Structure formats: C-alpha cells, structure tokens
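Supplementary Methods, section 5.1.

A reviewer requested that the exact input to the structure prediction be made available. We therefore reproduce it here, unchanged from the version used in the analyses.
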Amino acid sequence: WTALGRRRPLITIVASGDAVVAVWRYRRARALPGGETQLAAAGQSLATATRRRDPGVQVIRTKIVSLAGTQGIELDAIERIRGALRRVRSTHLYLGHSEIVLEEYSPLDVFHAVDHSVFSPLRRSLRITGIG
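The structure derived from this sequence is encoded token-by-token as follows.
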C-alpha cells in the first residue's frame, strides 16, 4: 500500500493497485444528524445526492453504523471511477462540527477479498482524534 499526496479536505489516501482507501474531513456549519431518525434521513439524503451526482450509480444499501465510537451512515454502491466500474463503501461519521468520510473501493471482482483482508480490519482499527 502506497500513501499518495493529499490536499484538504483529504486527510490521507493509500492505494495498492486498483484498491484505494481515502479519509476526508469536512467542516460542517449546520447541525449534524444524531439519533436514529435523523441518521436514517441522512442516509436517504446521501443516497439521493449520490444518484443525482452520478445517475449511473447503483446504490446497494445505506445503513446506520457505529465506528470508532461515532455514529454515522454507510453507503455501499457500484459506480464508475475514472471510467472503471468499482464497488465503493463510503462511511460518513458525524463528530463535533465535522463529517469524517472513510472511502474504500476496488474493482468488483476483488472487492470481497480486499474487504476481508484490508478494508474491514482497517475499519475495526480506526480511531478518530483531534476533532472539534
């Protein structure tokens, strides 16, 4: 895995072949979703915005998650990135005045293997510090 360049709001990006992990941090002025009802609505809004941005995207599901002690939304989709079909898992965590996004993607045919060996262990080890 190779660490690539970064520029705000990108915190870091690492890649191995066509598999990529990126972490983003967005400052939010408006209230972040909290509680089951608001998080479910945020998941629907996220799926709608994703489809609007890319009408060809296939949203597999959205679900409420708890990761690194923080609640958020996970969006699982199939989409084209630079013309190539990719399975994408995008996890949006809401903390303080920030939205932290963990984005993991790879080609469809290797997603399960990369998820099992890299993405899922990385998610379980994730710690968020220094956010206000």
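The longest helix spans residues 35-53. These observations are discussed further in the main text.
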